[in-house]
Design goal:
Shape: globular
Distance between the termini: 39 Å
Number of strands: 8
Largest sheet: 6 strands, mixed
Structural class: alpha+beta
Radius of gyration: 15 Å
Helix content: 10-25%
Length: about 140
């Protein structure tokens, strides 16, 4: 299977209401990916609650190599439901960068619960992380 890069803010073409249509033959990048929820299940002391499981809350949590938490939301408001909202806000209040990503775009979650719209201006060639600027500065 050829490696194709999925455009940002788009659903994978193989994603169905029953899961991955090519699960048995999925690309290596998919087979090795672990969302943060799944990764925390290895340690009872760190395990995120079942209510935050991606298929239940509509949010897949990922951490990039810079330590930025990315909340990939099935719907723009998916992150606003408990307990996800409280958890994300606690991280933002603790000084962590929390990005909310949905089909409407990407926003930075601020410590006060407000959001700042961001625009991707490229990809860092070293880290392969997306680089964002505030929409208001463009």
């Amino acid at each position: 299977m050829a490696n194709k890069v999925k455009p940002a803010h788009s659903k994978c073409e193989h994603c169905t209401d029953r899961g991955c249509a090519i699960y048995a033959n999925r690309p290596e990048v998919c087979a090795t990916f672990q969302c943060l929820w799944l990764a925390t299940q290895q340690s009872p002391a760190l395990a995120l609650p079942a209510a935050m499981r991606p298929d239940r809350c509509g949010v897949v949590i990922d951490l990039n190599c810079a330590g930025t938490l990315l909340a990939h939301c099935a719907y723009p408001s998916s992150w606003k439901r408990a307990p996800m909202r409280q958890w994300l806000l606690s991280l933002a209040r603790g000084g962590h960068n929390v990005l909310l990503d949905s089909n409407e775009g990407t926003a930075l979650l601020r410590a006060d619960g407000s959001t700042l719209a961001l625009r991707c201006i490229g990809v860092d060639p070293v880290s392969n992380n997306r680089v964002y600027v505030a929409e208001s500065t463009i």
